[in-house]
Amino acid sequence: MGKVYISKVSNYEISRRNILIHPPEPPIDVLFEDPDNGIYVGRTRIFHVPFYWSYRNVTNPHIAIVGITGSGKSYFIKTFLTRASFVWNSNALIIDWAGEYRDWVKQTGGMIISLGKGSYLNLLDLGGMKPYDRIKQIMRTLELLTDIGQYPEQKRLTEMAIEKVYIKNKFKMDATEQRDEIGKHLIAPTLKDVVNVMEEQSKLGTYEFPAELENANYRLRQFIKPGEDFFAQQSTISLDEITTSGLVDLDLSGLPDETFRALGALSILQFLKEKMRISGWAKEKGLRLLIVLDEAWKIGKEDSSDAVMIVREGRKYNFGLIVASQNPTDISEAIFSNVGTTFILKVKFEKFLDYLQNTLNFSQFMRNEIAKFGVGQAAVNMAFHSAAQYPSTFLLDKIEGEEPLKEYFLNLENVLTIQQKRDVNMPKSISFPKEDLRKKMRSYGLSEERIEEISKLFEKKNRHLDVVSFIILLERFGISRNNISTFLKDINMDDSTIINIFTKADYKKEDLGSRDVTQVIIEEE
Fold first, then answer.
1. ∠ at Cα 33 (27, 35), nearest 5°?
2. In whole angstroms, what separates CA 402 from the centre of its chain?
């Protein structure tokens, strides 16, 4: 017989051995509660239970998605919106900062609205508001996007000029319904009218501080320049149409800079917030409208943004906000702390993991698992209605979309040191979604023919390419090392490895000479 020994064991060690504790997943009746009225996302990692997300289980329908470029954020958003349209007949509006969703929305038969490419949004449209209320919104927007808040007199002059053009156009300042004597709807003035009023006042020469007036006018003139007057012409966008037409992409990529994009996004959010209130309490099931903000840090970071107001009030009107970012600290704390569900994909920096762990209060085990995520893997944090006796954060094997998430791999074997090769935790390849590669190459100016050539090489090599040969190929196609370095960093490659890659690429280019790199890649074993 064996002998029994008594030994001292730490509490930590006992906790590691304890098999009677509840597993880090909610029970099946929460994860799989009502498949007919939920959005299928994927299976849990431990018990492989199908997880159906439903707004009914959580404190509100708003969602935050965090993950580096290539982690699967946009793939998840597309999957979620597609399924929500089938399950709840939801409409969706994507405020598309970089035009990332344009092609997909077009393929699905949705509506594309391109500000800066033929579509206009009059900043002085009321959207169902009283002029006094709209003026307050406009001024708040200008404070977020310019330095006007630092100059009270210029702010006052701008506000007075806007009020004057409304009155001049026979608008009743405290009314929502605006009609003329014969019952016809009044046409809103524009920023050009506001600038004209200021210029007329300047010409009179009666104002005590002409420099203040000139500076206030100068600030608005940037939005009425010929060719850049996207917010100073009568609107071609119908608010009713974009909130009831299924899937709509508001493409902001045609606007000249971040300030213009933020102005368009904030104005739409303000109109949507008022429409939400005017629509009133929603009794029907589901979500009437899903609003997507992806990487819109300039309007998602400020607590005074109207995105925060939608988060606070959207539930009772069946409006949902989906906000996504590489950097969780770019999302306003007021938004982040109020969303009902957070999806955490691959996160790169320790400081971001610190922020997430402190905000969502998940375990060290969960943090360690998140740090090891590959493409499409995720942790889910849910703020349940009642105080649950089970974990609020759990792991998914992989987000399962409408079609398989196709990945490409860059093999690192040839650039790793002997010590790195011996390290069992050191990845021998880096993966990223196929569509992310194509999107990046387009942004770097590569032609569709070249992009297709690269994709075919990956396919011929079973979706695996040697990273050094890949770099040489991109350089032969005219992509700068600066852009290549940015791409490698985005897929989670560290600086020392990137330097080693470029060094080996230089040596290999000398051996290759003028040989066809694509043929060399095919020949490589």
1. 135
2. 20
φ, ψ dihedrals at 291, nearest 5°: -110, 125
Phi, psi torsion values for 405, nearest 5 degrees: -80, 105
State the burial class of residue 525 (Cβ atoms within 10 Å of its Cβ: 0-12, 13-18, 19+): exposed
Tell me the pLDDT tens digit for each residue of 117-157: 888 999 999 888 899 999 998 998 898 888 898 999 999 99
Nearest to 112 by CA among 228, 237, 233, 231: 237
Q: How big is the chain, counted in residues?
A: 525
DSSP-H helix ranges across 114-151: 131-145
User: Would you call 346 helix, strand, or coil by DSSP?
Assistant: coil
The answer to whether residues 436 and 451 touch, using CB atoms and an 8 Å cutoff, is no
Structural domains of the chain ordered from first start: 58-116+237-357+366-379 (3.40.50.300), 131-221 (1.10.8), 407-523 (no CATH)
* pLDDT tens digits, 463-481: 889 999 999 999 989 999 9
Cα distance between residue 72 and residue 436, in whole Å: 9
- Where do we find the tokens 């009225």? 37
φ/ψ (deg, to 5) at 40: -70, 130
pLDDT in tens, 18-72: 444 455 788 888 888 888 889 999 999 988 999 999 888 888 889 999 998 888 8
Which parts of 9-49 fold into alpha helices (H)? 11-17, 28-31
Query: For the CA atoms of 92, 95, 97, 100, what is the dihedral angle to 10 degrees?
Result: 10
Task: Output the six-digit token pair for 269.
Answer: 């959010």
Give the integer Cα–Cα distance in Å for 162 and 170: 13
The sign of the dihedral angle between the CA atoms of 208, 212, 214, 216 is negative
Angle between helices 467-476 and 495-512 (to 10 degrees): 70
Contact criterion met (CB below 8 Å) for 352 and 325: no
Residue 43 and residue 67 in contact, taking contact as beta carbons nearer than 8 Å: no
Q: What is the reported pTM?
A: 0.73
Q: What pLDDT sits at residue 21?
A: 46
Task: For residue 352, count CB atoms less than 10 angstroms from its CB and return exposed for 0-12, middle for 13-18, buried for 19 or more.
Answer: buried
Distance CA 180, CA 42 (A): 56
